Amino acid sequence: MRPSFILDRDGDVTLQDQIRKxxxxxxxxxxxxxxxxxxxxxxxxxxxxxxxxxxxxxxxxLVADGHVVARERSGLFVSGDLTAGxxxxxxxxGIAERATPNGLPWSERLPRLPALPxxxxxxxxQYRYPFLDGCFDDSLFPADEWREAAxxxxxxRQIASWSGIADDxxxxxxxxxxxxxxxxxxxxxxxxxxxxxxxxxxxLLALELFCAEGSRxxxxxxxxxELRALIEARRGEVVLQPVxxxxxxxxxxxxxxxxAVVTPSHQLPTGATLSLDRRRELLAAAEAHDLIVVEDDFxxxxxxxxxxxPALRSMAGGSRVxxxxxxxxxxxxxxxxxxxxxxREVVAHLRELxxxxxxxxxxxxxxxxxxxxxxxxxxxxxxxxxxxxxVRQMALRDALNHYLPRSxxxxxxxxxxxxWVRGPDGLDVAExxxxxxxxxVLFERVDPYYAGSLPPALFRLGVxxxxxxxxxxxxxxxxxxLNDVLEKKADPLPILTGRALRRKMSGARLDCRTIYGDPCTxxxxxxxxxxxxxxxxxxxVDTGRWxxxxxxxxxxxxxxxxxxAAAFHxxxxxxxxxxxxxxxxxxxxxxxxxxxxxxxx
Length: 601
Prior knowledge:
Layout: H1 15-28, H2 41-48, H3 52-64, E1 68-71, E2 75-78, H4 95-99, H5 106-109, E3 129-130, H6 143-153, H7 156-162, H8 170-180, E4 193-196, H9 199-210, E5 216-221, H10 225-233, E6 237-244, E7 247-248, E8 259-262, H11 276-288, E9 292-296, E10 321-326, E11 338-341, H12 344-357, H13 363-374, H14 377-403, E12 408-410, E13 418-422, H15 429-438, E14 441-442, E15 444-445, E16 458-462, H16 471-485, H17 498-505, E17 508-513, E18 519-524, E19 529-534, E20 540-549, E21 552-557, E22 566-573, E23 576-580, E24 586-594
Helix pairs in contact: 1-3, 2-3, 6-13, 8-13, 9-12, 14-16, 15-16
């Protein structure tokens, strides 16, 4: 019988393994029942179009695994029925009973669940420009290093040491205690650390311990939808705390709360970093009002634009903080390991809660992670992806500065992997998402993060999912999609032309802000040259030229805006100058004055 499976010669699985899987599937489906004679290796090789040696190796492994038996001078035969004695195979038990009408009315017994946000497309990797935070392109995963760590954890002595573990792997706890936590200023004993199945599991354990019915829990708004849903499921009361550029606002509402859950390193989802003053205010409020703080140190390892602030757990008053973090998110798809740090009495209770549900994270994953850390692979990976994320974040910032210069709502000052973007007034974000998807661009809508009123025209761009060389063309495609959906153009403005345009621009001083919030001054000299200084200490300097052509103002910098020439219509109202694109949409503005007492030419 000709085999019914097809080999994938471009796949990651070897041809020998594909043949083994195909034969086993034929046996399992009873297409090749017990006692069935397999085609000879020569015949199978011809039917599949592979070398005979490839089939021979596959057959040898099937014999070694006991699926196939060799009979002298007769050939290879299916050794037995793979489905024999296994429930769920053969005649399906109970199907008649389940098919009878008037069964249990499940809709009356099941609790009502909140409407979940729309999931990300499962095929996001097929899009050219997926600006999705938390999805990681394949280039970031340390495949060789993880393979080495996993291989070491599977040595016989290693298996013997971790296979009987009924709790946390002491080797992994020690690596976290001595290598990861000190970087956050946290020094803990082994009995103050608990391993979890990722940060979401840790968050759930904290709520199970501290959020009783009627508890008032302060959460960030915007913030994770799942957190609010978990609190409400436990019949707690959500107290919304607004977020600004300095992180969660600490005000009088905290006085009535029992618990606060915060993401201080990079607020989820805005990316704002909780300022040092706000950290002190939060801890002071926690002490004054007997408040427990859960610190979800989201993306703590991606602070690459500035010096880290200390973790709340490490500061004065940090003993009432339960600290949550995880290994790098790039490892999450296959690892799902997080950890909690708290006083040992708290950890003991958390350990009992965990034991009642999942016992402990898989010991083999724990040991592989311990090997990965002990070999220095984790530090090397974090340095590499830190450099890569910095390049990507700067590429996104520069591209937005070039194509959508007034768009960033909250500028990350300590790294992270996202930009919180605000579109023009009146923008329908759902319509923009559909138009962008048609151009191969995916971005994240932010309405599920808000429990209160949703500010208009907001969305989020992330850089974990696409390499740096695709960021600029991705933002260009997003800008094109934005222009597709904008129905409202800028109000009619008095556009300058000819001599009036030249007189206004020659000798002008332009004061504005960069997309990342720094002051910027541009001088347009009468000879057609221009200089620019940006930053609070004028640390970013560039020169270029400007000219008038066809009633449009042209400019070209040496380095800024990619060093490319650009042309704009110009409108001036009072002391405000506006640059307009060919569709007469306002793309940027500045305050216009004169250079010293230089008279217009």
